[in-house]
What does this fold into?
Amino acid sequence: MKTKKLNTIASLIFFALTLVVTGQNKFDHSTWDQALILNVSTDGLVNYNGFMKDSSLLYTYFQQLTENKPDASWSKDEQMAYWINTYNAYTIKLIIDSYPVKSIKDLKDPWDKKFFKIDGEWFSLNDIEHKILRKFGDPRIHFAINCASYSCPVVLNRAYTAANLQRLLEQQTKKFINDPTRNTITPTEVKVSKIFSWYKRDFKTDNKDVVDFINSYANVKISNQPNKGYADYDWSLNETKINPTTYVLD
It folds into this structure.
């Protein structure tokens, strides 16, 4: 009887652990992870020629995405990871479909073009960003999605998952804000990315403003600098001409 009871307890524990694990792994992003490792450098430069050569990985991932749209059973982090990866993957597709191209802005309606399907529904990049990702109420998503341009937050060369999402959102936000090629924050001058102007309302949370948000990550705080403004936005393509050889592994 004691052995039977112990077996029952063990079974319940195993079942509970299984629920926890599967709840955090509704979708396997390993195909996208592999494509990123092969074709994105640690500084976020993209080898678009490489993505075209590895197109089988991309199209396998697109098939997985369209067949596994998130539903209410997915955790918030799993949903966010799915849609961030979807946005970034289809931005890559948008570029390679018209490659070579000097800038995403050379394309017609790049963000409003409905050019891919998820579970039979047509989507644009703006649909994902504005109708889905921004609805989560987490302004850090702006530093995880990439618009194929130098002034955008860099393309991370690993896939987002439910397990790494929070850590990577913090990492990418801090990295972007303290990147002198995208923001200048010194004791005498402030020129921040226009992202903080375009999405100003997203950064106003919990009675804090945009400056409060930036200061929570910035190594140099914004306070009484005499020169303040926004940096010019470089829309040129964020590409590298060589195969990346150095990777960041978790």
Residues 4-24, 243-250 have pLDDT under 50 and may be disordered.
